[in-house]
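Minutes, project check-in

Agenda point 3 was the complex the collaborators sent over. CS summarized: two entities, 586 residues total, and the question is how they sit relative to each other. Sequences were read into the notes so everyone works from the same version.
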Amino acid sequence: MRQALEGSQAIARAVALCRPGVVAAYPITPQTHIVEGISKLVADGVMDCELVSVESEFSAASVALGAAAAGSRAYTASSSQGIMLMSEVLYNIAGLRVPMVLTCANRAVGAPLSIWNDQQDSMAVRDAGWIQLYCADNQEAVDTTIQAFRIAEATELPVMVCVDGFVLTHTMEPIDLPDQTVVDAFLPPYRFARMLDPARPISLGTLVDPGWFTEARHSHHHALLKALPVIEQIDRDWQAATGRAAGGLLEVIGPADAPTAILCLGSVASTFTEVLEDHPPGDPVKLIKLRAFRPFPAEALRAACVGVKTLIVLERALSPGLGGIVSVEVQATLATVPDAPAVHGFAAGLGGRDMPVELLPDLLAAARAGRPGEFTIADVQLSKLPEEDR
Amino acid sequence: MLEIRIHGRGGQGNVVAAYLLAGAAFEVGRHCQAFPAFGAERRGAPVTAFVRIADRLIRRRNQVRTPAFLIIQDDSLLHVPGVLDGLLPGGGVLVNSTETSESLSARLGVATASIPATALSTEILGRPMPNVALLAAFLTATGALPHEALDKALAHRFKGEVLERNRALMARAEASVPTGLWSIDVNERENHAAGA
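CS then shared the predicted structure for the full assembly.
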């Protein structure tokens, strides 16, 4: 049913529709409203699940890991320093190949302390071995949350649903929450084949010596690559069930043959979609909205870039001392392609800086004036810095 | 697209005001969006919230820089730099103040209407919560949405005596501003906002 809902409440309701057995979480801005929402749904008897309030994010992830390993559908959510504190457990969850879902309400990582949105937190754990899906709006956040449980259970991998903090989590907008019957049909009860069961004792998390570690890593890497078609198929299944897709691996918006493309992740893709509706047709520009960051959809990206001469990559995180994270990966993916586009990397919107509609024409102008392969923080105000830091 | 910016202080129900206005727009089938921009998370700190209402899907998620209207929940914020920034020509400012509309308009140099929302809410709700009074006055002054829409949005959030008291507050606030003071057509603003 279509309702005007705050993003966090919509995500909480979407989680409830998935009937998790265990939710464990520790509050942190801007994730808090999601967990509060779930807590209320449990208290009101709407959700029948074990809600575990823990003393830290490390414990939240550990409880979810234990629950998922014991065969329960498990969920947690966090942000920023919370994701950092979880990071050891996040690697374990993925390495043990335990399916569960985590919402990352994306927030900058301190220092300097910031409660506001960027995507440094999820980018910092991109190599933990989780599937990472980025959402452009709250409808995608709802649909991706529900899909995430099915992807996790189909692949036996954990899925992180990345939702821009405040920009999405605190935005009220009309959202269609699917009926319980639709979700039940899409997401049937799950039995984890390797679940911890006293009747069939197995060990999970044993020491792996150099004779096997490489093979475990190889297998994990390939499990993620094999998840690529699964993510696409589950989005198609969702579209068949609801009439709505959530962006597959990536989505190309605008003229397919445009020589200029902008690749971005998260809510700025929503803003840019609207800006491009009014963009002059004489200067065709298309948007490549990257939804799956892990696994990285290399083949889909190469296909989306056919005919593109100039590719702008905009990201909301920074690898200090290198520059772009996404832009470097995009460049590497396109390196062997004949007539590969010139890639121009930009970061913007760090620590909650607003990304106005003018950012798109500004990026186009900067890319056209800049050198390929360059990386720039597009919205830095150098006049605020002492001369030697500029 | 109609863009509105709401300024208040932490604890004044600023975000709730934005959600109620967007919720009211949803009730009459409009597309809507509301979100806050927090500063420090504490009572009394300036808080800004944004509302967009349109007849087409709203995809932009940037902050409202060129609002058609400003709603100011605390007149001490009029002294904060940037509060009046970007107000579109022909736009209006609705302020919770005991100063007269004429005096404020002259002082600020923009069309301003005032209602004593703190006094009204203290009298009717028993506490200084200016947001619903300002929203009701805003709808009266602009005709942006029917009052029933706000009533429905309130009924989603409040029940029983609290709802009834808020309804009484709405009625008093509606009578405090001239009807159609700033009559607007939501779609007339579309081009303004798109070009912003």
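Noted in discussion: The mean pLDDT of chain A is 97.
Follow-up: revisit at the next meeting once the mutant set is ready.
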